[in-house]
Amino acid sequence: MPHSEPVCITSAAKNEFFLEQQCSIEEQEEFHELEQFWDEEKQRLSDVDGQKPIANSWEERFLKDDVLSEPSPTKKSKGEVITVKGETAKDIPTSYVISGFEPHELIAIGTYVDKTITPGFRYKVRKNLTEDYLFDGQALHLENVGLGYGKRITFQGSSLNENENYFWSDSRIHGFGFTLQTLTTQEAFEITGQPGRLVIRNPALSPDTELNTVVKDNGRVEKLIRVNFSCDVVMKRGNIFMEDVEVQGLALVVRNGSSAMAKIEKIVLEKFLDEGCCLLPEE
Fold first, then answer.
1. 142 forms bridges with which residues in the sheet?
2. CA 212 to chain centre
């Protein structure tokens, strides 16, 4: 599969001729202010090794700034060469020319982390241009994305005292691909309308696709996600049991401002028993 080497272009590397040709005076001033800010930030974080991640730093910027007003890079196909830019997320003004990512994957490379990668939601992480996944291929809840040039990305760990489930955004030259995963095996739901119960077998027959993200003033984050999974179904009426049924639907996944983890609020199923049939998590 053809691919290109990633290229990082920093503002510091741009000469005056490039700036004069490409940027207005206001844009040049904004670039210089960003460079000054991140130089100071890099110095402050230069000894971050061995320390706890800076809690909520990425999250606070995600909530306070209108980072979703700028569109993400155009939907890509695997092998397509694309360019991602830090400016789109009001981050360090770097650009990366890259390839190898799956169409559904969110990208983290160098200083760049896709603005829709959100703490509290569950992701699998692939090393780009390989079939290898971090954390033994498990989908884990994202706890924090740090600030700085190389961002420390921390996931939920098995130990509260020593969490080893983290890596740095700039630790791999080809970057990382994030796949959102909504469901887990053996997760159970109540079927509305038709009294019954549904238990997840395969949580992702195809990768989950994020359709929309909304951030409320109170910090509530809502994601609308298309899911495709297999399950076992028990219908109370008629005592009917259906095994290994493939189901598609739209999941509303919510993380409230005071909560560390997102939860499924409901799943509206498509072409399943009655139109508009919903799943609600069992309590």
1. 155
2. 12
Structure letter (DSSP) for residue 164: -
Q: Which two tokens mark 2?
A: 């053809």
pLDDT by residue (tens digit) across 55-109?
Answer: 344 555 545 444 444 444 445 666 789 999 999 878 999 999 999 999 999 999 9
| Helix H or strand E encompassing 266 | strand 263-270
Task: Give CA–CA dist 96/83, Å, rounded.
Answer: 5
On whether the CB atoms of residues 253 and 268 are closer than 8 A, the answer is no
Instruction: Count the neighbouring beta carbons within 10 Å of the beta carbon of residue 267.
Output: 26
Q: Are 92 and 169 in contact (CB under 8 A)?
A: no
Query: CA 167, CA 178: separation in Å to the nearest integer?
Result: 13
- Of residues 23 and 121, which shows the higher confidence score? 121
Strands (DSSP E) along 52-100, which ranges? 82-85, 95-98
Query: Helix, strand or coil for residue 229?
Result: strand
Task: Note the pLDDT of residue 204.
Answer: 97
Give the tens place of pLDDT for each residue, 36-53: 665 655 554 444 343 333
Contacts of 212 by beta carbon, 8 Å cutoff, 6+ apart: 223, 224
Spatial strand order in the sheet of 152-155: 112-113, 106-109, 176-180, 122-127, 140-145, 152-155, 166-168
**260 vs 33, 121, 141, 143, 254, CA distance in Å?**
33, 9, 9, 7, 11
DSSP β-bridge partners for residue 228: 248
